[in-house]
Write a structure and sequence with these properties.
The complex is a heterotrimer of chains A (507), B (484) and C (99). Chain A is mostly helical and 507 residues long. Chain A is built from 21 helices and two strands. The chains are: A mainly alpha (507), B mainly alpha (484), C mainly alpha (99). Chain A: Its main location: membrane.
């Protein structure tokens, strides 16, 4: 019996990354065939898959922490290999995805209670998370590209879900952007592979040994890759799809903005800079400074535009444009402290932004509030939701002890260390001021102004202010964002993990 | 059983089926799908034999080579036979239900099985004249099948198809005549050994290329394809687009790389590649502007055949291992297109039966009414665009790789433009399908129609995209000389 | 290969064959009417067959090469059946009433 168990754990152990990808993929396929009316079956499948995935990720995390190596290889063509590999950086993203997927699943079940085509929705929802986890666990660029394209495919039906002309138009725009980006990325990867051979992710990079005559090609490839990835990461001027994609249901927006799509882009940039080029070699090539400038511009531009949006989700969308670029900025500054700031923001931004979108969805779903100008006094009607929103917003501004503060602190220290404080500091300050300028008025309205009548109240306040499955997800994620900031120095905190990654990235 | 028998069975089984289906009309459908299934089984067996025991050569009836019919099966031929048999099987299962209660039903099966016979015989033909006979058999049965559409448009398309096919065959026959006059043999190996770089050789090569380019609808000789492929009944369209044009392409590959090798200079290869590039751009653009789904699929075939020809200039300059990889990628691309395009046409047939039309603008709500069919269209679309996972993705990957390795970056531009256009036409279709339908009707589609379409689409995407590694080892089984 | 005296008739036949082939090709391409196209194709075929027969000639006192003859026979069978099919479709087209 013991032997059998050993064999089993060993078999599971080696292929663990594959099981993690397949756990949601297979369930997604099953859900497509679930009858529309079988609410309970679908919910059970959804939650089961999310919990199983989280448990598997837990095992994987434990293993990676104890230095175990997990690798799954599959040769798909000569000289072309799919590789799933769990390293510290992928674990950060995988854990974030698995955790937030569970929460978002609960939320989505509550949110889509009575709407049509739920089986289709949850099917693609699961595929979407499989793609995210797959690209997080990708061990080489080939695998990454495949999951990157797969993610586009899986999210398209989610954006188009409502089927209205507006939704389809937004989905078309989304595709136009992301497929063009994906294609450029593909071209860049094939080009790089023809120069550098297998593109396995290695901490510290793999390109610094290439002869000098390849350097100009490497710069072009870097540009193509950043454009390809920047589309999903919503770097200005490639961000046009994101505010439009807001027509999608709130759980989709939450997923797109906090976990899957924009994060895939940002994560890809981190991978390319650190594990393909190597940050020090990228600096030698002189590609980091332009990247940093684009990121800085995006941060300020996104925040400025957010200021002028009355529609709550649009304001949050532009805020995403701005916030994701903190990750890119941290990547583009040479030095371990900035790296820590960028990488840890991957998690922090996810926690905070998903909270904000959940809360926005609750306002819309409970009271019919879609605009900032309708939010007067909503804090008294929906205190817990508004509290969560407040925590998220304060985090975004960077007020201690929220998680966002930690990110900005490390970015600032990193800029100091790298001697680029002169231009990074103004960006950080300007963006924080702008963040405050577009979030604080919302908080003021919500808490301090007297309530009007609600535009369309369709969930009455009973024991809780809204449906339980809508209420708890933002409360949980807001608490996580708070904890990540408060206990940043404890082991297993995102910060601790980001420091572990950073220590391995510098040769 | 004798191992070489597998070569004979893949040809004689469908032929036998065709005869039986003509005699016992009331059982035609059963005979049809049973013999397709058996043929597919034999095709697997053939591939297994080639893989285990190497190239199979067979002189039928004991006649010596040069007089009798000789059959030849190497890795490439066996793979093509398997591709053709699988698509035919899928379409046969589909056709049982599709033609139910239709007048053409009894006419369909004998012609259909004859088409399958002609395809397999062509892939296995051992000399140039056999190729001519199988080409004619293919052209005649394909054209007759197109005419089953019975409307004026279908008849006109069938006629044009027939005339174009005959014209192509005549050009091909003239080339054979020239070769025989010069070298006194029709055996491809002997011709390949004796071939001189002289005006006669050039004339023969160009006549053959012209004839086959016409048959494979290579730009600018593609004009006949869209009407023919879009007006035929769905299973016929599927086979025409997936297999019949591939047969001509297969011959071009054989002749180009094995018989006429001394004449096929990089310059000529580049000229051919340029035609391919134009086919990609023009075909994709026309597909984007197509009003009807079947027309879209037909134009997309023009583009996809263009990609196949774009491999030639790169194969002309690459050497060694990289060249073998690229060659395998080309075959993989052809296979992927065969499965994806047949799946797309079958799905289009379901839509057409369900909605009564296939106008793209009016397809709103298909996702709700026909979810599985829409899924098939999406999967086929993935393979046509060349997104992962699909055989076409790997094909494009190696094409890009070769373009960078040889510094011929202009092919990259064509590929990028073609892929963007393909994305646009596939998702224009899906975008309409995602629209709301005012009143959702209950789907009345038979599973026997949706399942084969789904199986073919899955084969093109997940099957070939993730599990095609053995293809390269299969293709490594080649004879010492030409395969023909 | 062959003597000067033998080349002339063979050469003449080959030329005639190629000429017929060219005329047929030209006709197939240019004529819009399908019956004419079919006739042109048959002219083309006749050209090819003529060339093949000429190729079979091996000298005055030698029997002709049987292989091209076999090819011509097969070719004629194929051409006849294809022509028959084409004519049937043309008739159907004239009888069809839809549109």
């Amino acid at each position: 019996m013991n032997e059998l168990l050993n064999v089993l754990t060993e078999a599971l152990g080696k292929n663990l990354p594959l099981w993690i990808v397949l756990s949601s993929f297979s369930v997604g396929l099953v859900i497509f065939f679930v009858q529309e009316s079988s609410h309970r079956l679908r919910t059970t499948l959804n939650l089961l898959a999310a919990v199983v995935k989280l448990a598997l990720v837990g095992v994987l995390l434990w293993g990676v922490y104890h230095g175990q190596v997990y690798e799954v290889r599959w040769v798909i063509a000569p000289n072309l290999e799919l590789l799933l590999h769990a390293d510290a950086l992928s674990m950060l993203f995988v854990t974030l995805s698995a955790l937030l997927w569970l929460v978002t699943t609960v939320y989505a079940i509550g949110y889509l209670e009575h709407s049509p085509h739920r089986s289709r929705f949850f099917g693609f929802f699961s595929l979407c998370v499989s793609a995210t986890v797959g690209l997080a666990l990708a061990g080489n660029l080939v695998t990454f590209v495949m999951f990157y394209e797969f993610l586009t495919l899986a999210t398209y039906p989610l954006v188009a879900h409502k089927g209205s002309d507006e939704a389809r138009k937004a989905a078309r725009l989304y595709l136009a952007y992301t497929f063009t980006g994906g294609l450029l990325l593909l071209v860049a990867v094939v080009w790089l592979k023809s120069i550098a051979g297998p593109l396995t992710f290695v901490q510290g990079g793999i390109l610094d040994t290439l002869p000098a005559e390849t350097h100009s090609a490497l710069r072009w490839i870097f540009l193509l890759m950043i454009v390809g990835l920047g589309v999903k990461a919503a770097l200005v001027p490639l961000h046009g799809w994101l505010p439009k994609a807001m027509v999608a249901p709130a759980p989709v927006s939450a997923l797109l903005h906090a976990v899957a799509v924009v994060k895939a882009g940002a994560f890809g940039i981190v991978r390319v800079v650190y594990d393909v080029y190597g940050v020090e070699f990228a600096d030698v090539l002189g590609v980091l400074v332009p990247l940093g400038i684009v990121a800085a511009f995006t941060i300020v531009y996104g925040s400025t535009l957010a200021l002028f949006q009355d529609e709550l989700k649009k304001r949050l969308a532009y805020s995403t444009v701005s916030q994701v670029s903190y990750i890119v900025l941290g990547t583009a500054i040479l030095g371990p402290l900035a790296t820590v700031g960028g990488i840890v923001h991957l998690v922090h931004q996810g926690l905070m932004k998903i909270t904000l979108f959940f809360a926005a969805g609750n306002y819309a779903e409970t009271l019919g509030i879609h605009r900032v100008s309708q939010m007067n006094g909503v804090g008294k009607r929906m205190p817990l939701t508004t509290l969560a929103f407040t925590l998220g917003a304060l985090g975004m501004i960077g007020i201690p002890p929220m998680a966002g503060f930690i990110s900005k602190w490390y970015l600032g220290l990193g800029a100091l260390e790298a001697g680029v404080l002169l231009w990074v500091m103004p960006v950080l300050i300007a963006s924080s001021l702008l963040n405050a300028a577009y979030f604080l008025p919302i908080l003021y309205r919500a808490w301090f102004l007297p309530a009007d009548s609600w535009p369309d109240e369709h969930i009455q306040a009973q024991r809780w202010e809204t449906h339980g499955m809508l209420l708890w997800p933002p409360v949980i994620t807001a608490s996580l964002a708070l904890l990540a900031g408060l206990f940043a120095s404890l082991p297993f905190s995102p910060l601790e993990w980001a420091q572990l990654i950073t220590a391995r990235e510098y040769k | 059983m004798n191992e070489a028998a597998s070569v004979v069975w893949v040809i004689s089984l469908p032929l036998l089926g065709a005869l039986l289906a003509t005699v016992w009309r009331q059982y035609a459908a059963t005979i049809g799908w049973v013999s397709s299934a058996l043929t597919a089984g034999c095709a697997v067996w053939l591939l297994w034999v080639v893989q285990r025991a190497g190239v199979q050569e067979l002189a039928l009836g004991g006649w010596e080579i040069g007089l009798g019919i000789s059959l030849y099966a190497d890795g490439l031929a066996a793979v093509m036979v398997l591709m053709s048999s699988l698509v035919v099987l899928g379409c046969s299962v589909y056709a049982r239900h599709y033609f139910r209660a239709q007048r053409q039903h009894e006419l369909f099966w004998p012609l259909w099985l004859l088409l399958a016979t002609a395809l397999n015989a062509l892939f296995l033909a051992g000399d140039l004249f056999n190729v001519y006979v199988t080409l004619e058999l293919l052209g005649i049965s394909a054209s007759a099948l197109t005419a089953l559409g019975a409307k004026r448009a279908a008849l006109r398309a069938a006629l044009r198809y027939l005339v174009v096919g005959l014209l192509g065959s005549m050009l091909y026959l003239m080339a054979i005549t020239l070769l025989y006059a010069a070298y006194g043999t029709l055996n491809a190996v002997q011709i390949a050994e004796a071939l001189q770089v002289d005006p006669l050789g050039w004339a023969a090569l160009l006549l053959m290329l012209a004839g086959l380019a016409l048959k494979m609808a290579l730009f600018p000789l593609h004009f006949w394809l869209p009407p023919a492929h879009s007006n035929a009944p769905a299973p016929v369209s599927a086979a025409l687009s997936a297999l019949v044009v591939k047969a001509a392409f297969y011959l071009v590959v054989r002749l180009w790389f094995e018989v006429f090798a001394p004449l096929t200079t990089p310059l000529l290869a580049n000229a051919l590649g340029a035609l391919g590039a134009m086919a990609v751009l023009w075909g994709s653009w026309s597909a984007l502007r197509a009003e009807r789904l079947k027309l879209l699929a037909a134009y997309s075939s023009v583009a996809q055949l263009g990609y196949l020809v774009m491999f030639f200039p790169l194969l002309a300059v690459l050497e060694g291992e990289a060249r073998q990889w690229l060659f395998g990628a080309m075959v993989l691309f052809a296979l992927s297109h065969a499965f994806a395009k047949s799946a797309l046409f079958l799905a289009a047939g379901i839509l057409l039966q369900y909605a009564g039309h296939d106008r793209i603008r009016e397809l709103s709500g298909t996702t709700q009414a026909l979810p599985l069919t829409t899924f098939v269209i999406a999967l086929a679309g993935i393979a046509l665009v060349g997104l992962p996972p699909s055989g076409a993705f790997l094909g494009k990957w190696y094409l890009l790789d070769a373009a960078f390795k040889t510094g011929q970056w202009w092919w990259v531009l064509v590929l990028v433009a073609g892929s963007l256009l393909a994305t646009a036409y596939v998702f224009r279709l899906l975008g309409h399908a995602f629209g709301h339908l005012p009143a959702v009707k209950r789907p009345v589609v038979a599973a026997t129609q949706e399942i084969p379409a789904l199986a073919l689409a899955l084969l093109a995407t997940f099957g070939l995209g993730l599990g095609a590694m053995s293809l390269w080892s299969w293709l490594a089984h080649t004879g010492t000389g030409a395969g023909l | 290969m062959v003597g000067l005296s033998a080349i002339n008739p063979q050469f003449l036949y080959v030329c005639a064959g190629i000429f017929l082939f060219a005329i047929g090709l030209w006709g197939t391409w240019l004529h819009a009417h399908y019956v004419r196209k079919i006739i042109s194709l048959n002219v083309m075929g006749a050209g090819v067959f003529l060339t093949l027969i000429a190729v079979a000639y091996r000298g005055e006192h030698l029997p002709p090469d049987p292989v091209p003859h076999a090819l011509v026979l097969t070719g004629i069978v194929v051409a006849v059946s294809a022509t028959a099919l084409a004519l049937v479709i043309i008739r159907r087209l004239e009888d069809a009433t839809d549109e």
